[in-house]
Amino acid sequence: MGVCDMAEREYRCKVKVFDVTTGQNIVLLNKEQAVEEDIYISDRVIIKHGDVEVTCIVDLSNVLVKNDEIGVFQESAEKLGVKPGDEVIICHAQHPVSVDYIKKKMDGKELTAEEINTIIKEAVENRLSDVELASLMTTMYIRELSIDETVALTNAVVATGSQLNLNRHPILDKHCSGGVAGNRTTMVVVPIIAAAGLYIPKTSSRSITSASGTADTMEVLANVQFGIDEMKEIVYKHHGCIVWGGAINLATVDDKLIKIRHPLRLDPKGVLLASILGKKKSVGAEYVVIDIPVGRGSKIENVEDAKALAKDFINVGSRLGMHIECFISDGSDPIGEGIGPALECADVLKVLQNDGPTDLRDKSLQIAGELLELCGKVPKGAGFDMAADILRSGKAFEKMKGIIEAQGGDPKITPETLPIGTKRHEVIADKDGRVQHVDNRLINKIARAAGAPKDHGSGVLLHCEHGDKVTKGDILFEIIAEHESKLEFAVKSLETMNPIELERVIIGKFAGNGYFSKY
Amino acid sequence: MGVCDMAEREYRCKVKVFDVTTGQNIVLLNKEQAVEEDIYISDRVIIKHGDVEVTCIVDLSNVLVKNDEIGVFQESAEKLGVKPGDEVIICHAQHPVSVDYIKKKMDGKELTAEEINTIIKEAVENRLSDVELASLMTTMYIRELSIDETVALTNAVVATGSQLNLNRHPILDKHCSGGVAGNRTTMVVVPIIAAAGLYIPKTSSRSITSASGTADTMEVLANVQFGIDEMKEIVYKHHGCIVWGGAINLATVDDKLIKIRHPLRLDPKGVLLASILGKKKSVGAEYVVIDIPVGRGSKIENVEDAKALAKDFINVGSRLGMHIECFISDGSDPIGEGIGPALECADVLKVLQNDGPTDLRDKSLQIAGELLELCGKVPKGAGFDMAADILRSGKAFEKMKGIIEAQGGDPKITPETLPIGTKRHEVIADKDGRVQHVDNRLINKIARAAGAPKDHGSGVLLHCEHGDKVTKGDILFEIIAEHESKLEFAVKSLETMNPIELERVIIGKFAGNGYFSKY
Question: What is the CATH number of the domain that holds B330?
Fold first, then answer.
């Protein structure tokens, strides 16, 4: 895997194995001995054991490893096939060639597809340190990837993971760029499309910072962790599924990049495009609708940015053989009433039974309708009506029950039998007014404080939405929790967070004495 | 030190201490428990123990730490004042504000002095992870710092370390941007300037990738590790010193940045300027001559880059109250004959005794002369002669003996009594020719393979220099080592490295049959 630096010496050490998960190949060397051998912290060494060679990043210790000992962390121990006491050879490693390519991009030059492939390959093989990956992400953020580079990155991402190879057509898919609480359209769109006889092998993500991801919400109704062959089985039988993408390993490199993106809070556009489109490509999607919510408190705050992103999705998608259409939707406020896994399930089941929040219903029908038109199932303009017919007929609900059962859940579940938390706290309007804003980010925080997504039954139940008139004493929302202590914690968080803003006609009074007083 | 994220819970763990030096505050949390608490790898947590709070980066393990245990690494354990078994409180931490400032710079906006101060302060307090520091370095490389930003960075760097506060004037200093093997002008310039009655409190660095740094070479003659008060003492008495900057702690933040610069091989100009000028500022330097070697195999390859760098040094220096002049010198070939600590000492001692390599002598006199003119000691044009007079008179040699003695060395040492290795290998010219190039990088590699700088007596002794005519059978250079095995290793490295290029008048023959044959 690595190339020893020819001008450097080798030395031998006995292995100590440490069960520490670092996400990189890290070895611990004795500090004094390392200095003797001209090896410094964060340097790269090649560890050889028999025919196996693994490039590792150096960490130093004085006590954990003694002279002639090497501490090998679990991941590297497995790769090397070593057990405690085995002898390994250590030699200086050259920098991986990716470091040169990252530098090239820093200097403003465009990378070739081959260079991008090499970077992704070396990242997947754990040959790049966190420091190098951080540098890569920063570079890709500042020096935006071109369309060519993004296409190459997407192909590289696809090549690192499994592929579904369904051999059926047409294959449809949807995606939402996220940030809107309660936005569970996937769980309405998938059964509609599948009920229309088209294929929609949907993989979804779990929450990172939100109250729930689609995979978390679906998990209340059924299992979501399946291997690629099981997923195929379900899709062949039911035309659709809603499973957790993380279990399928569609884009291995993604985990590595997310690890860096998360602490840096960086989402370079090229990486975002490649990560999303790579997963679509891996399931063989041919027609994809992407929902880009825009607005205050949403991930993307202005329409111009959303338009530019949409254009890139469409361009890169077309280069990858996918027909993509993008919705730019209003993302200022949550969708539906429940925020949190089981509460969101209640909204979804109600919509599938032709009840429930109209915003979730309408948005789902728009997306499903667009997909039906995009793949040519119905003429332009007839998609929404066909989707609405399928929903109204109960066929979508039947299909959802089939999928739930295929994924090991109970198809007889109803909104009433969902495991929703019993500890409740009502938040009351302290004045009259009109709801001007329901903050996605704060609602998510409160729902998380109450235990979501881990506690499936916890979250927030909204009693009002943007534009509603409320009277002092009305319930604005309820905090719902499985555990009393978490409920208390969430209630306490309200001291610093006000997720619902009420607009007042008179904001304040500027008095004759020169003082301004808030109403 | 940190701010807990208000919406997050706290939990308690018992401490296990691990003696691992990571250069960051890292804690090990039990993997399953961390997931329960919504904490992921690379997240930031605040550890509280009594009144002390330390922000740490999370690593995960299943076996090293059990449920309700936390692994604290040595550095953080000291800060927290915890011992094994102590209970600490863990809570989610907000991102340090520096992350926002780094992002601001990524987006192409200029940072204020206060923002730069905060970044450096948080870096010194170990509140920034390697990932964040890597992102910072990459950003400063791509989005070059303005002069204002560089001045602010230099001031921030100075504020993080100790300061000499000599209260004497004028204070002179020199610096070389490096890359040239054997370039030990400091050890000739310092005694000349000190003998002229001026102050030159010189701190030097150790080798990172070269065969020797000035601190390594001086260490053959005397101690180089002194605290700031000891350094002051020596300078008050002898007007000069040559000590290792790393022991003085003039710019604490530098170590952190070098740790990142090394693996990324990045040297953002603003960081380079701040690191060098920060150290000059910390010793109170008023007049500084900077040598910028340029040429093939040198750090800076073309004169235009060197000119731009010189201009920046002068501008930033003037904003910091320092008068700076820069030499752009020929850095294509090594200076002096010996490469490696003791071998370089031999050159220096010979020059101080009016013998030895003329290139080392002349360059040192030029730098010393420029310093004498810059501080107004002599009129423009008279510096070189004054420096040469001091050298010729033996006063510089006497001064050097005084400094060696003050730094705990033996002032009676001679080139003959230096501890030079006894294992030798001669490299012979295999053809006639003229020396066209002596490669700094390869000579350094061979000297390091032979044991330098750790083995003081090892290195390379050049028998020829650029422009020399050599005859087949002449000695080109000797490899010198303290240990036979390292000599063998260095000799073996010659199989892939040819550090001395001989030019031939006829390069090859293009024969009538269409074949080209090399001579």
Answer: 3.40.1030.10
